[in-house]
Structures are given as C-alpha cells and as structure tokens.
Amino acid sequence: MGPIPLYILLLVTVLTVVVAVTTEENRVDDQYTWPQWKVPLVRKRRTVPLSSPNFSAHPQQELSGTCGIECQRRLPSPSLNDLEQFLSYETVYENGTRTYTSISVHGLNEVTIRSKNTSSSSRHKRELYGTDTRFTIADKQYSTKYPFSTSVKISTGCSGVLVSPKHVLTAAHCIHDGKDYLDGVQKLRVGILKEKSRRGKGGKGRGGKEKGKRRKGGRGKEEALEKEENVGKGDTKGRGKGKKIRSRRSVDSGKPSFKWTRVKQTQIPKGWFKGVSNGLTADYDYAILELKRAPKVNYMDLGVIPSIKKLPAGRIHFSGFDDDRPGNLVYRFCSVSEESKDLLYQYCDAKPGSSGSGVYIRLKEPGKKKWKRKIIGVFSGHQWVDVNGDGMQQDYNVAVRITPLKYAQICYWVHGDSSECQVA
Prior knowledge:
This protein is of the alpha+beta class.
C-alpha cells in the first residue's frame, strides 16, 4: 500500500477536530438543558372514609429522629409493594372529613427506585453560619413578580410554592407531625403576596410581566437578580456588580401584604406517617394543598434532574417567609453538598418559616434557547438526624428532591389523571 496523500490526512484531521468540538458542545449543552424523563404511572385503587382527625398536633421548630443519607444506606431498598404503600395517601377536606386512598404503580423501572448512597461527610449547624447570605425581597416590584410571586405563606407558619393555578406544594410536617394533623389545619389558609395599592393596571399580569410603566432603574435591578441566578451557567461576568446591588434589594418601597385563600383539601403520602416507612420518613416530607380559588399569579412547573452536583456550580434557589423577617419574602441560593435519590444536603442559610419552600433551578428547555425555572425539591428545613444509624444526632439543612415517582404522584394529585403525567 502506497503512502497516503497529504490532502487526505489534512481532511481526516479537520473532520476529527470538527466531530470532537461538536461532541463537546453537545455535552456542555446537555448540562444546561432540562432532561426528559418517562415517569411511572400512579393510579388509584380504592378510596375509603376515615374518622375525622383530632387536629391536636403542634408545629415543631426542628425535626428530630430523621434517618439521613448515611443512615438510609444501611436500609434495604423498598420493594414495589412498599413503594405503593408509602405513596398511598390521606386527603383531609375543609369540612374536617378524611379519606385514605391506596394506589398502584405501573411502569416502574430500576432508575426510579431509590439507590443506596455511599457518601459520608461531617456537617455543621447551618441554620445560619457566619455571614447571613439571605436577601430580603421587600420591594413589591419584585416580590409580587415571577418567580417570587410563586412563593406563598401557609397559615401554620411555613412556606409553599404554587405548582398549578390552584395547587401549592409544601412540606408534610407543616401539616402533620407524623401522628396527627396540626392545630389549625381544618381552617388552613394560604397567603399570596399582594401589592397594597395599584395604579392603573401596572400591578397586574402573569409571570412577572408588567403592563404599566417600569419604575426608573427597575430594569437594572431585574437584570442584576438574573445574574445572581446565572452564576455557574457560563455567565460569570458582572459578579462584582451583582454584589453592589444586593443591598438595594432590601429597600422597602411599598411593602406588599397578603391575600389569604382557604384550602379546599390537603393530600399527604402515607410514607410520612410514623411507623409506615421507618427510616425513609424524611423522603416523604411533602404535601399538596388545593385552594378554593385560583390566585391571579403564575406558578412554577415541576422538574426532575438526575444529579444536582453534576450541574454547573451545583446551585439551587428558593424563597420563603423566614420567621426572623416577618412579612418579608427571603431569597437565597447555595450549592448542594451531598445528595441521594431522595434527599439534598445543602448549606443554604434559613430560619424556621422557610420550611416548605420550593427549591428550583434554571435550565434551557430542550431544543430551545429559552431558560426555564422548575421546582426540583421541597425545603424541609433544619433537622436533627441519626446520621450513621447509631443513635447519634447531628444537625443539617435538608431538601426533599422530586424523583420520577414523586413527580408522578404529585402530578396525579394536581391533575387527577395519570395519563397527563407520563413525561417530566
């Protein structure tokens, strides 16, 4: 065989480089794009009436006795029958009645089943640690606009997030202590941030779109906040500018008030109840509230992500109503330190009252250049956990992540039809 002509070698080299660059670009782009999941189907088997709750439980500032990531890795993976029992649920209605619904799960595959986690690390008390990194969103120009307008206050003292025009996602412990429903749940209400006064139609609109004139300088503040959320997403320029503007976000220029709406019904997975899921109780610290009337604000969709730590910066965001800043919405972001299929350990500064907040990230929609925020977890709060299963208690901040199976259940609660919940 004779020598290969030089032009052929050059052509092959160029093609190899082009293919390599294209592959790398696609790989990087995938990091910034919402993955598409085929989720299992959750279907109702039977609903039976139960006796009315006592509504005698009291809110807890800190949860204890929770089995954390390291503790859970000692437990056997739940079977399909176990998962169906954990995902069966109770519904409490505004008249005080209660039902129990058993469910069946179809199309479950190995990816959606909780896997054992081998991570282990030491933690510190992180309710607040060092410099307080939270931002008070007191200006009505922002607190009543998307994405902050999706955050709501629960009358039991927690926070929540709108995931449909009439449904709020929150933490189960904000409603139930594992044994009984909290005092006040029978008359449960949800507070939506509302501007105290409106001039013309400027305060209205969905998804944060103002129809009136913008306040002078408002555009710059919104862009600065976007830059905070985009850190680690390929836009690191202007980080210094973002820091300069942070202090101005706390200026009170027309503090909003709450418009309260009654809750029609509440749904909680059986896995949250004492003695049902044993060490997996923390995995089921979520609930859905259906409102009697839909507020005229936008909501945030649910999303599923295989790993937060593998995302650029591994950063999450959430806003809630921390107790130490009454009446104000508090926003924060931080990186996830450890994760399992169902739990996220993170060091976001938070105070009681922020429990139940929707944890979200921002990625591109598949095939589009448009960025979209989605809820990927529920902030459970500051908890004391049995880390290694030896009874030693340690504290940390935790969020319950949305898995494909939880997505299927929550979507079924919201739509009442599992056929609308096949793809996340």
